[in-house]
Protein backbone atom coordinates (compact mmCIF):
# COMPACT_ATOMS: atom_id res chain seq x y z
CA UNK A 1 0.00 0.00 0.00
CA UNK A 2 1.27 3.45 -0.92
CA UNK A 3 2.06 5.69 2.07
CA UNK A 4 0.76 9.25 1.74
CA UNK A 5 1.65 12.42 3.61
CA UNK A 6 -0.28 13.16 6.84
CA UNK A 7 -3.42 15.29 6.56
CA UNK A 8 -2.66 18.98 6.87
CA UNK A 9 0.87 18.72 5.46
CA UNK A 10 2.19 19.20 1.95
CA UNK A 11 5.22 18.67 -0.27
CA UNK A 12 7.06 21.66 -1.73
CA UNK A 13 8.25 20.53 -5.15
CA UNK A 14 10.60 22.03 -7.74
CA UNK A 15 8.61 24.63 -9.65
CA UNK A 16 6.90 25.74 -6.41
CA UNK A 17 9.83 26.01 -4.00
CA UNK A 18 11.45 28.83 -6.01
CA UNK A 19 8.70 31.30 -5.01
CA UNK A 20 9.16 30.32 -1.37
CA UNK A 21 12.91 30.79 -1.64
CA UNK A 22 12.39 34.22 -3.19
CA UNK A 23 10.17 35.28 -0.28
CA UNK A 24 12.60 33.87 2.29
CA UNK A 25 15.39 35.85 0.62
CA UNK A 26 13.20 38.96 0.81
CA UNK A 27 12.55 38.33 4.53
CA UNK A 28 16.23 37.85 5.33
CA UNK A 29 17.20 40.98 3.39
CA UNK A 30 14.75 43.18 5.29
CA UNK A 31 15.84 41.85 8.68
CA UNK A 32 19.50 42.24 7.73
CA UNK A 33 19.21 45.90 6.74
CA UNK A 34 17.30 46.62 9.96
CA UNK A 35 20.15 44.99 11.97
CA UNK A 36 18.33 41.85 13.16
CA UNK A 37 20.20 38.58 13.61
CA UNK A 38 18.81 35.07 13.14
CA UNK A 39 17.99 32.69 15.98
CA UNK A 40 17.01 29.00 15.68
CA UNK A 41 15.21 27.28 18.55
CA UNK A 42 14.12 23.63 18.98
CA UNK A 43 11.11 22.38 17.06
CA UNK A 44 9.77 20.86 20.29
CA UNK A 45 9.82 22.35 23.80
CA UNK A 46 8.44 21.48 27.22
CA UNK A 47 4.65 21.83 27.16
CA UNK A 48 4.73 24.16 30.17
CA UNK A 49 6.56 26.78 28.10
CA UNK A 50 3.56 27.29 25.84
CA UNK A 51 0.96 26.98 28.62
CA UNK A 52 2.71 29.77 30.53
CA UNK A 53 4.03 31.70 27.55
CA UNK A 54 1.08 31.62 25.16
CA UNK A 55 -1.76 31.49 27.69
CA UNK A 56 -4.17 28.90 29.05
CA UNK A 57 -7.22 30.59 27.53
CA UNK A 58 -5.90 30.68 23.97
CA UNK A 59 -7.22 28.39 21.27
CA UNK A 60 -3.63 27.29 20.67
CA UNK A 61 -3.19 25.84 24.17
CA UNK A 62 -6.77 24.66 24.63
CA UNK A 63 -7.31 22.99 21.27
CA UNK A 64 -4.43 23.03 18.83
CA UNK A 65 -1.13 21.85 20.34
CA UNK A 66 0.62 18.64 19.34
CA UNK A 67 1.61 17.24 22.74
CA UNK A 68 3.42 13.97 23.39
CA UNK A 69 5.09 12.21 26.33
CA UNK A 70 8.67 11.08 25.72
CA UNK A 71 10.40 8.01 27.18
CA UNK A 72 11.38 10.01 30.24
CA UNK A 73 7.68 10.69 30.92
CA UNK A 74 8.14 14.39 30.06
CA UNK A 75 5.34 16.29 28.33
CA UNK A 76 6.69 17.91 25.17
CA UNK A 77 5.01 19.98 22.46
CA UNK A 78 5.78 20.67 18.81
CA UNK A 79 6.14 24.44 18.75
CA UNK A 80 2.86 26.13 17.71
CA UNK A 81 4.43 29.62 17.50
CA UNK A 82 7.85 31.23 17.73
CA UNK A 83 7.82 33.85 20.48
CA UNK A 84 7.81 31.61 23.56
CA UNK A 85 10.81 29.61 22.35
CA UNK A 86 12.80 32.73 21.49
CA UNK A 87 12.10 34.28 24.88
CA UNK A 88 13.01 31.00 26.62
CA UNK A 89 16.33 30.98 24.74
CA UNK A 90 16.91 34.63 25.63
CA UNK A 91 16.36 33.93 29.34
CA UNK A 92 18.15 30.55 29.48
CA UNK A 93 21.25 31.93 27.73
CA UNK A 94 21.17 35.15 29.80
CA UNK A 95 21.38 37.35 26.74
CA UNK A 96 19.90 40.19 28.80
CA UNK A 97 23.31 40.52 30.46
CA UNK A 98 25.17 40.62 27.14
CA UNK A 99 23.25 43.08 24.95
CA UNK A 100 21.13 46.13 25.71
CA UNK A 101 18.74 45.50 22.84
CA UNK A 102 18.39 42.05 21.27
CA UNK A 103 16.90 42.15 17.76
CA UNK A 104 16.24 38.55 16.67
CA UNK A 105 14.44 36.98 13.72
CA UNK A 106 13.48 33.43 12.76
CA UNK A 107 12.03 31.32 9.96
CA UNK A 108 10.80 27.76 10.31
CA UNK A 109 8.00 25.21 10.66
CA UNK A 110 5.31 25.41 13.36
CA UNK A 111 2.58 22.88 14.19
CA UNK A 112 -1.07 23.24 15.16
CA UNK A 113 -3.84 20.67 15.07
CA UNK A 114 -6.59 22.51 13.23
CA UNK A 115 -8.91 21.93 10.30
CA UNK A 116 -6.86 22.19 7.09
CA UNK A 117 -8.17 24.78 4.64
CA UNK A 118 -6.87 27.33 2.14
CA UNK A 119 -3.68 28.86 3.51
CA UNK A 120 -4.02 26.98 6.81
CA UNK A 121 -2.21 23.69 7.43
CA UNK A 122 -1.14 21.59 10.42
CA UNK A 123 2.51 22.03 9.63
CA UNK A 124 3.03 25.62 8.53
CA UNK A 125 5.93 27.99 8.10
CA UNK A 126 6.37 31.25 9.95
CA UNK A 127 8.80 34.11 9.77
CA UNK A 128 8.98 36.67 12.53
CA UNK A 129 11.06 38.72 14.91
CA UNK A 130 11.39 39.51 18.61
CA UNK A 131 13.02 42.67 19.97
CA UNK A 132 13.88 42.43 23.66
CA UNK A 133 15.07 45.25 25.88
CA UNK A 134 13.17 48.46 25.06
CA UNK A 135 9.78 49.99 25.79
CA UNK A 136 10.19 52.83 23.27
CA UNK A 137 7.10 53.54 21.11
CA UNK A 138 9.53 54.33 18.28
CA UNK A 139 10.56 50.66 18.39
CA UNK A 140 6.91 49.58 18.16
CA UNK A 141 6.60 51.66 15.00
CA UNK A 142 9.78 50.13 13.54
CA UNK A 143 8.53 46.58 14.06
CA UNK A 144 5.07 47.38 12.67
CA UNK A 145 6.68 49.03 9.64
CA UNK A 146 8.94 46.02 9.12
CA UNK A 147 5.99 43.60 9.16
CA UNK A 148 4.29 45.74 6.53
CA UNK A 149 7.34 46.48 4.39
CA UNK A 150 8.39 42.82 4.02
CA UNK A 151 5.04 42.10 2.36
CA UNK A 152 4.78 45.31 0.35
CA UNK A 153 8.27 44.96 -1.11
CA UNK A 154 7.48 41.40 -2.19
CA UNK A 155 4.83 42.93 -4.46
CA UNK A 156 1.62 42.18 -2.54
CA UNK A 157 -1.15 44.69 -3.14
CA UNK A 158 -3.87 46.39 -1.05
CA UNK A 159 -2.10 45.94 2.28
CA UNK A 160 -3.46 47.57 5.42
CA UNK A 161 -2.29 47.66 9.04
CA UNK A 162 -5.03 47.21 11.67
CA UNK A 163 -3.75 48.86 14.86
CA UNK A 164 -4.81 48.87 18.51
CA UNK A 165 -3.49 49.22 22.04
CA UNK A 166 -4.54 46.59 24.59
CA UNK A 167 -3.35 48.56 27.61
CA UNK A 168 -1.18 47.57 30.54
CA UNK A 169 -1.37 46.33 34.13
CA UNK A 170 -2.78 49.71 35.20
CA UNK A 171 -5.69 50.17 32.80
CA UNK A 172 -6.44 46.53 31.95
CA UNK A 173 -7.84 45.58 35.40
CA UNK A 174 -10.15 48.62 35.41
CA UNK A 175 -11.40 47.75 31.94
CA UNK A 176 -11.81 44.12 33.00
CA UNK A 177 -14.06 45.11 35.93
CA UNK A 178 -16.16 47.38 33.73
CA UNK A 179 -16.47 44.71 31.06
CA UNK A 180 -17.47 41.96 33.50
CA UNK A 181 -20.12 44.19 35.05
CA UNK A 182 -21.75 44.42 31.63
CA UNK A 183 -21.39 40.83 30.37
CA UNK A 184 -21.87 38.67 33.49
CA UNK A 185 -25.63 39.31 33.75
CA UNK A 186 -25.95 37.90 30.20
CA UNK A 187 -23.27 35.22 30.65
CA UNK A 188 -25.42 32.29 29.50
CA UNK A 189 -26.05 33.94 26.12
CA UNK A 190 -22.36 33.84 25.17
CA UNK A 191 -20.60 30.82 23.68
CA UNK A 192 -18.78 28.37 25.95
CA UNK A 193 -15.38 29.78 24.93
CA UNK A 194 -16.39 33.31 25.90
CA UNK A 195 -17.78 32.05 29.21
CA UNK A 196 -14.36 30.60 30.02
CA UNK A 197 -12.68 33.82 28.92
CA UNK A 198 -14.83 35.78 31.33
CA UNK A 199 -13.02 34.01 34.17
CA UNK A 200 -9.46 34.28 32.86
CA UNK A 201 -9.15 37.01 30.21
CA UNK A 202 -12.40 38.79 29.24
CA UNK A 203 -10.57 41.02 26.77
CA UNK A 204 -10.21 38.04 24.45
CA UNK A 205 -13.99 37.97 24.01
CA UNK A 206 -13.42 40.64 21.36
CA UNK A 207 -11.49 37.96 19.44
CA UNK A 208 -14.44 35.55 19.38
CA UNK A 209 -15.52 34.44 15.90
CA UNK A 210 -19.17 33.82 16.82
CA UNK A 211 -21.47 36.50 15.37
CA UNK A 212 -23.84 36.24 18.34
CA UNK A 213 -21.07 37.05 20.81
CA UNK A 214 -20.00 40.09 18.80
CA UNK A 215 -23.63 41.21 18.57
CA UNK A 216 -24.00 40.93 22.34
CA UNK A 217 -20.84 42.96 22.97
CA UNK A 218 -22.20 45.71 20.71
CA UNK A 219 -25.66 45.56 22.23
CA UNK A 220 -24.25 45.81 25.76
CA UNK A 221 -22.05 48.73 24.66
CA UNK A 222 -18.92 47.10 26.04
CA UNK A 223 -16.12 49.64 25.57
CA UNK A 224 -12.93 48.64 23.80
CA UNK A 225 -9.74 48.71 25.81
CA UNK A 226 -8.53 51.53 23.51
CA UNK A 227 -11.31 53.70 24.98
CA UNK A 228 -10.04 53.10 28.53
CA UNK A 229 -6.27 53.49 28.22
CA UNK A 230 -4.39 55.07 31.10
CA UNK A 231 -2.50 58.31 30.39
CA UNK A 232 0.83 56.56 29.90
CA UNK A 233 -0.58 53.98 27.47
CA UNK A 234 -2.48 56.66 25.56
CA UNK A 235 0.70 58.71 25.15
CA UNK A 236 2.65 55.63 24.05
CA UNK A 237 -0.02 54.73 21.50
CA UNK A 238 -0.17 58.28 20.10
CA UNK A 239 3.60 58.29 19.59
CA UNK A 240 3.45 54.93 17.77
CA UNK A 241 0.90 56.41 15.36
CA UNK A 242 3.00 59.54 14.77
CA UNK A 243 6.00 57.46 13.77
CA UNK A 244 3.98 55.13 11.54
CA UNK A 245 2.67 58.21 9.71
CA UNK A 246 6.24 59.49 9.37
CA UNK A 247 7.20 56.16 7.73
CA UNK A 248 4.18 56.24 5.37
CA UNK A 249 2.69 53.03 6.77
CA UNK A 250 -1.05 52.83 5.91
CA UNK A 251 -2.91 51.96 9.11
CA UNK A 252 -6.37 52.20 10.61
CA UNK A 253 -7.43 51.95 14.24
CA UNK A 254 -9.39 48.88 15.29
CA UNK A 255 -10.48 48.97 18.92
CA UNK A 256 -11.63 45.33 18.84
CA UNK A 257 -8.31 43.90 17.72
CA UNK A 258 -6.79 41.99 20.66
CA UNK A 259 -4.93 39.17 18.85
CA UNK A 260 -5.20 35.53 19.91
CA UNK A 261 -2.47 35.39 22.55
CA UNK A 262 -2.67 36.28 26.24
CA UNK A 263 0.76 37.86 26.60
CA UNK A 264 0.17 41.09 24.61
CA UNK A 265 0.33 44.52 26.25
CA UNK A 266 -0.05 47.94 24.65
CA UNK A 267 0.57 47.90 20.88
CA UNK A 268 -1.12 45.11 18.89
CA UNK A 269 -1.56 44.95 15.14
CA UNK A 270 -2.30 42.85 12.07
CA UNK A 271 -1.34 43.27 8.42
CA UNK A 272 -4.27 42.40 6.18
CA UNK A 273 -5.26 42.69 2.54
CA UNK A 274 -8.56 43.01 0.70
CA UNK A 275 -10.62 39.82 0.84
CA UNK A 276 -7.94 37.91 2.71
CA UNK A 277 -7.28 36.79 6.25
CA UNK A 278 -4.43 38.16 8.33
CA UNK A 279 -1.00 37.89 6.69
CA UNK A 280 1.07 38.94 9.71
CA UNK A 281 0.47 40.20 13.21
CA UNK A 282 2.14 40.97 16.45
CA UNK A 283 2.28 43.01 19.59
CA UNK A 284 4.18 44.16 22.64
CA UNK A 285 4.58 41.71 25.55
CA UNK A 286 6.16 43.51 28.48
CA UNK A 287 5.42 40.83 31.07
CA UNK A 288 6.34 37.68 29.15
CA UNK A 289 10.07 37.57 29.90
CA UNK A 290 9.40 37.82 33.64
CA UNK A 291 6.65 35.19 33.37
CA UNK A 292 9.16 32.77 31.84
CA UNK A 293 11.69 33.21 34.61
CA UNK A 294 13.74 36.15 33.39
CA UNK A 295 14.10 39.75 34.54
CA UNK A 296 11.34 42.30 33.97
CA UNK A 297 12.43 43.29 30.46
CA UNK A 298 10.01 44.55 27.78
CA UNK A 299 9.63 42.89 24.39
CA UNK A 300 7.80 43.22 21.09
CA UNK A 301 7.52 41.08 17.98
CA UNK A 302 5.47 39.83 15.07
CA UNK A 303 5.03 36.71 12.97
CA UNK A 304 3.64 35.98 9.53
CA UNK A 305 2.45 32.80 7.86
CA UNK A 306 4.30 31.99 4.66
CA UNK A 307 1.54 29.82 3.17
CA UNK A 308 -0.88 32.76 3.02
CA UNK A 309 1.78 35.02 1.52
CA UNK A 310 2.58 32.52 -1.23
CA UNK A 311 -1.09 31.85 -1.91
CA UNK A 312 -1.79 35.58 -2.23
CA UNK A 313 1.30 36.13 -4.38
CA UNK A 314 0.01 33.52 -6.82
CA UNK A 315 -3.52 35.03 -6.80
CA UNK A 316 -2.18 38.54 -7.38
CA UNK A 317 0.25 37.26 -10.02
CA UNK A 318 3.24 38.75 -8.25
CA UNK A 319 6.22 38.59 -10.59
CA UNK A 320 9.31 37.18 -8.94
CA UNK A 321 12.34 36.80 -11.21
CA UNK A 322 13.47 33.23 -10.66
CA UNK A 323 16.39 31.97 -12.72
CA UNK A 324 16.28 28.28 -13.61
CA UNK A 325 19.18 28.56 -16.04
CA UNK A 326 22.73 27.26 -15.70
CA UNK A 327 25.97 28.79 -16.89
CA UNK A 328 27.61 25.76 -18.51
CA UNK A 329 26.61 22.33 -19.77
CA UNK A 330 29.43 19.84 -20.26
CA UNK A 331 28.49 17.50 -23.11
CA UNK A 332 30.34 14.16 -23.22
CA UNK A 333 30.63 12.62 -26.70
CA UNK A 334 31.97 9.21 -25.62
CA UNK A 335 33.08 7.21 -22.59
CA UNK A 336 36.75 8.16 -23.01
CA UNK A 337 35.86 11.77 -22.10
CA UNK A 338 33.90 10.91 -18.94
CA UNK A 339 36.75 11.33 -16.46
CA UNK A 340 38.04 14.61 -17.98
CA UNK A 341 34.41 15.85 -17.93
CA UNK A 342 34.13 15.06 -14.23
CA UNK A 343 37.34 17.01 -13.55
CA UNK A 344 36.09 19.94 -15.65
CA UNK A 345 32.67 20.05 -13.92
CA UNK A 346 34.36 20.05 -10.50
CA UNK A 347 36.75 22.84 -11.53
CA UNK A 348 33.90 25.02 -12.85
CA UNK A 349 31.71 24.50 -9.79
CA UNK A 350 34.68 25.33 -7.53
CA UNK A 351 34.63 28.77 -9.17
CA UNK A 352 30.91 29.21 -8.45
CA UNK A 353 29.86 28.51 -12.02
CA UNK A 354 26.51 26.68 -12.30
CA UNK A 355 27.36 23.55 -14.29
CA UNK A 356 25.56 20.36 -15.31
CA UNK A 357 26.43 17.21 -17.28
CA UNK A 358 24.74 14.03 -18.48
CA UNK A 359 24.66 10.90 -16.29
CA UNK A 360 22.40 8.69 -18.41
CA UNK A 361 24.54 8.01 -21.49
CA UNK A 362 22.45 10.20 -23.80
CA UNK A 363 23.53 10.88 -27.35
CA UNK A 364 25.37 14.11 -28.06
CA UNK A 365 22.30 15.44 -29.86
CA UNK A 366 20.11 14.73 -26.81
CA UNK A 367 22.65 16.37 -24.51
CA UNK A 368 22.57 19.53 -26.63
CA UNK A 369 18.77 19.56 -26.38
CA UNK A 370 19.08 19.24 -22.60
CA UNK A 371 21.54 22.16 -22.51
CA UNK A 372 19.06 24.25 -24.49
CA UNK A 373 16.18 23.29 -22.15
CA UNK A 374 18.29 24.30 -19.13
CA UNK A 375 19.07 27.66 -20.81
CA UNK A 376 22.81 27.05 -20.56
CA UNK A 377 24.86 29.97 -21.82
CA UNK A 378 27.78 27.79 -22.90
CA UNK A 379 28.20 24.16 -23.89
CA UNK A 380 31.59 22.56 -23.43
CA UNK A 381 32.12 19.60 -25.77
CA UNK A 382 34.42 16.75 -24.77
CA UNK A 383 35.09 13.65 -26.83
CA UNK A 384 37.93 11.36 -27.82
CA UNK A 385 39.32 13.89 -30.32
CA UNK A 386 39.25 16.82 -27.88
CA UNK A 387 40.93 14.77 -25.15
CA UNK A 388 43.66 13.65 -27.55
CA UNK A 389 44.33 17.27 -28.64
CA UNK A 390 44.16 18.65 -25.09
CA UNK A 391 41.32 21.05 -25.96
CA UNK A 392 37.67 21.59 -25.09
CA UNK A 393 35.01 22.60 -27.62
CA UNK A 394 33.28 25.77 -26.41
CA UNK A 395 29.93 26.78 -27.95
CA UNK A 396 27.65 29.73 -27.18
CA UNK A 397 24.01 28.69 -27.39
CA UNK A 398 22.95 32.31 -27.86
CA UNK A 399 25.16 33.19 -30.85
CA UNK A 400 26.18 29.75 -32.12
CA UNK A 401 29.82 30.81 -31.92
CA UNK A 402 32.10 27.79 -31.47
CA UNK A 403 35.84 27.42 -30.85
CA UNK A 404 38.40 25.08 -29.36
CA UNK A 405 40.09 26.24 -26.15
CA UNK A 406 43.13 24.64 -24.48
CA UNK A 407 41.92 22.42 -21.64
CA UNK A 408 44.04 24.26 -19.06
CA UNK A 409 42.57 27.62 -20.18
CA UNK A 410 38.89 26.73 -20.47
CA UNK A 411 37.85 27.60 -16.89
CA UNK A 412 39.48 31.06 -17.11
CA UNK A 413 37.92 31.58 -20.55
CA UNK A 414 34.43 30.72 -19.23
CA UNK A 415 34.89 33.06 -16.24
CA UNK A 416 35.91 35.98 -18.49
CA UNK A 417 33.08 35.28 -20.95
CA UNK A 418 30.44 35.19 -18.22
CA UNK A 419 31.79 38.44 -16.70
CA UNK A 420 31.51 40.21 -20.06
CA UNK A 421 27.99 38.90 -20.66
CA UNK A 422 26.78 39.98 -17.21
CA UNK A 423 28.42 43.39 -17.51
CA UNK A 424 26.56 44.01 -20.77
CA UNK A 425 23.15 43.08 -19.34
Automatic annotation (TrEMBL):
Q: What lineage does the source organism belong to?
A: Bacteria, Bacillati, Bacillota, Bacilli, Bacillales
Q: Which UniProt keywords apply?
A: Aminoacyl-tRNA synthetase, ATP-binding, Cytoplasm, Ligase, Nucleotide-binding, Protein biosynthesis
Give the UniProt family note.
Answer: Belongs to the class-II aminoacyl-tRNA synthetase family.
- Pfam families, alphabetized: HGTP_anticodon, tRNA-synt_His
Q: Which cell locations does it reside in?
A: Cytoplasm
Q: Name one GO biological process term.
A: histidyl-tRNA aminoacylation
Q: What protein name is recorded for this chain?
A: Histidine--tRNA ligase
Residues holding L-histidine: 81-83, 112, 126, 130, 259, 263-264
The entry describes its oligomerization and partners as: Homodimer.
What is the superkingdom listed in this entry's lineage?
Bacteria
List the Gene3D superfamilies: Anticodon-binding domain, Bira Bifunctional Protein, Domain 2
Which InterPro entries does UniProt cross-reference here?
aa-tRNA-synth_II (IPR006195), aa-tRNA-synth_II/BPL/LPL (IPR045864), Anticodon-bd (IPR004154), Anticodon-bd_dom_sf (IPR036621), His-tRNA-ligase (IPR015807), HisRS-like_core (IPR041715), HisRS/HisZ (IPR004516), HisRS_anticodon (IPR033656)
| CC terms in the record's Gene Ontology section | cytoplasm
The record places domain Aminoacyl-transfer RNA synthetases class-II family profile at 1-321
In short, the EC number is 6.1.1.21
Q: Per UniProt, what is the name of the gene that codes for the protein in this document? A: hisS
Q: What class of enzyme is it?
A: ligase
Could you list the residue ranges forming a coiled coil in this record? none
Annotated catalysed reactions: tRNA(His) + L-histidine + ATP = L-histidyl-tRNA(His) + AMP + diphosphate + H(+)
List the GO molecular function terms. Answer: ATP binding; catalytic activity, acting on a protein; histidine-tRNA ligase activity; transferase activity
Cross-referenced CDD domains: HisRS-like_core, HisRS_anticodon
Q: Which organism is it from?
A: Alicyclobacillus tolerans
